[in-house]
C-alpha cells in the first residue's frame, strides 16, 4: 500500500492544453478571447501534426496598443484596427520548443507564417544576453526576473519578452509587449521606415529590384544621415547591398567581412556593445524582411577605395624586354632540338 501511494505521487501531471494554459494567465486574456472557438486561428498557432512550437503571444496591453509598428502612412489608428489576420497569428508561432535560456543565446526562428510569394517560412529573431549564463542565474532565482530578450520582426518591429516558459501540451508560451509585424520586401521595409532619401536614391539608380532579390542584406539610413547632399551614385549605393547573404545580428558574430554588390569589402566588428560596419554603427538592427534583412546605420559608410593599377612606361619597357627574352629562349631551345 505504501508502494502504491509513492507511485501515485510520482505520476506526472497531464500537460495542459493551449486554452488551459491561456486561461491560467492574466497577461493574455484578450488574445485568449480572440482565438477562443476560432479553430482557424488555433491551427495558425499550432498547425495539425505539429507537436512542438514556441508561441510569442501579446499581452493585453500589447493588443491594446497594436497599430502596426510602421511609421505613417502604414500606421493604423485604433478605429481602423481589425482583428488579427491568420497570417499575423501564424507569425506568433515558431518551430520547435525554445525556452528562455535558449532564446537568451540568440536564435533565428522559422515561424508558421508562410510568405505567399516565395512559399518560404517567415523568420523572427530572438536576441538575448549572449551566453545564457545570466538567464540561468535569473531563472535559478525562481523566475523573479527574466532575461533581457528582444524579438525582431518585420517593418522594424521589436518587442520584449515580459513573461515566459509557460508550457502546454504542444510547446512553450512567452508573452511579448509588442505585436510583431509580418516581414515584407526590403524595399517595402525601407519605405515603411520613412527613409525617403535613401529609398529615392535606390529608385533613381534602378536598384530596387536588386535589394528585393532573395537572401539580401541592405544597410540603410534615416533621412537625417542620408541627406539630399549624400553621394547617390550607383556604385556607392551598391556598396550598401550584400547579395546572397542574410546578415542577421547572430550571423554578424561569425563573420569579419562582407562582400557588396559593388565587389567591395565591408569590415564587421562588435565593440562597446554595438556592431560596426567599417566605422559606421548599426543603430537599428534586424529589420526582418521576407527576402533578407535591413540594418540602419548611424553614419555614412566610408568604403576603402580600390586604387587601379596603371603600368608606367618603365613597366611597359620591362615587360617588352621580358617577352623578347622568352621568345629568344624558345627559339634557342627549338634550334638545339633540331640540330
UniProtKB/TrEMBL annotation:
Domain FAS1 spans what residues?
A: 15-180, 182-301
Instruction: Give the species this sequence originates from.
Output: Tuber melanosporum (strain Mel28) (Perigord black truffle)
Which SUPFAM superfamilies does the record associate with it? FAS1 domain
What molecular function terms (GO) are annotated for this protein?
cell adhesion molecule binding
Query: In terms of domain of life, where is this protein from?
Result: Eukaryota
Q: Which GO terms describe its cellular component?
A: extracellular matrix
- SMART domains reported in the protein's UniProt record: FAS1
Which residues constitute the signal peptide according to the record?
1-15
Q: Which InterPro entries does the entry mention?
A: Adhesion/Biosynth-related, FAS1_dom_sf, FAS1_domain
Instruction: List every stretch annotated Disordered.
Output: 62-85
Keywords, ordered alphabetically: Signal
Any matching Pfam family = Fasciclin
**Biological processes annotated in GO:** cell adhesion; extracellular matrix organization
This protein's name: (Perigord truffle) hypothetical protein
Q: Does the keyword Signal apply?
A: yes
The cross-references to Gene3D superfamilies, in alphabetical order and at most eight, read: FAS1 domain
Q: Does the keyword Signal apply?
A: yes
Amino acid at each position: 500500500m505504501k508502494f502504491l501511494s509513492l507511485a501515485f505521487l510520482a505520476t506526472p501531471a497531464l500537460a495542459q492544453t493551449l486554452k488551459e494554459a491561456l486561461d491560467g494567465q492574466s497577461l493574455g486574456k484578450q488574445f485568449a478571447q480572440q482565438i477562443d472557438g476560432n479553430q482557424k486561428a488555433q491551427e495558425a498557432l499550432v498547425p495539425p501534426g505539429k507537436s512542438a512550437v514556441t508561441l510569442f503571444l501579446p499581452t493585453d496591453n500589447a493588443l491594446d496598443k497594436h497599430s502596426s509598428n510602421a511609421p505613417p502612412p502604414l500606421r493604423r489608428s485604433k478605429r481602423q484596427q481589425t482583428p488579427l489576420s491568420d497570417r499575423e497569428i501564424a507569425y506568433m508561432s515558431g518551430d520547435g520548443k525554445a525556452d528562455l535560456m535558449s532564446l537568451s543565446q540568440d536564435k533565428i526562428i522559422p515561424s508558421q507564417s508562410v510568405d505567399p510569394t516565395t512559399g518560404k517560412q517567415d523568420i523572427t529573431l530572438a536576441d538575448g544576453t549572449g551566453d545564457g549564463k545570466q538567464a540561468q542565474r535569473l531563472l535559478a532565482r525562481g523566475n523573479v526576473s527574466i532575461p533581457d530578450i528582444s524579438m525582431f520582426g518585420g517593418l522594424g518591429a521589436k518587442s520584449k519578452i515580459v513573461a515566459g516558459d509557460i508550457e502546454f501540451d504542444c510547446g512553450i508560451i512567452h508573452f511579448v509587449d509588442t505585436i510583431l509585424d509580418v516581414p515584407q520586401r526590403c524595399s517595402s521595409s525601407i519605405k515603411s521606415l520613412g527613409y525617403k532619401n535613401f529609398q529615392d536614391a535606390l529608385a533613381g539608380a534602378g536598384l530596387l529590384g536588386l535589394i528585393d532579390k532573395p537572401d539580401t542584406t541592405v544597410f540603410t539610413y534615416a533621412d537625417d544621415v542620408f541627406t539630399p547632399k549624400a553621394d547617390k551614385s550607383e556604385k556607392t549605393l551598391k556598396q550598401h547591398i550584400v547579395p546572397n547573404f542574410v546578415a542577421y545580428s547572430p550571423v554578424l558574430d561569425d563573420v569579419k567581412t562582407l562582400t557588396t554588390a559593388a565587389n567591395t569589402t565591408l569590415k564587421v566588428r562588435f565593440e562597446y556593445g554595438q556592431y560596426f560596419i567599417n566605422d559606421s554603427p548599426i543603430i537599428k538592427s534586424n529589420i526582418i524582411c521576407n527576402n533578407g534583412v535591413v540594418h540602419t546605420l548611424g553614419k555614412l559608410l566610408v568604403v576603402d577605395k580600390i586604387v587601379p593599377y596603371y603600368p608606367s612606361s618603365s613597366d611597359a619597357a620591362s615587360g617588352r624586354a621580358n617577352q623578347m627574352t622568352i621568345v629568344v629562349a624558345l627559339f634557342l631551345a627549338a634550334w638545339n632540338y633540331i640540330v
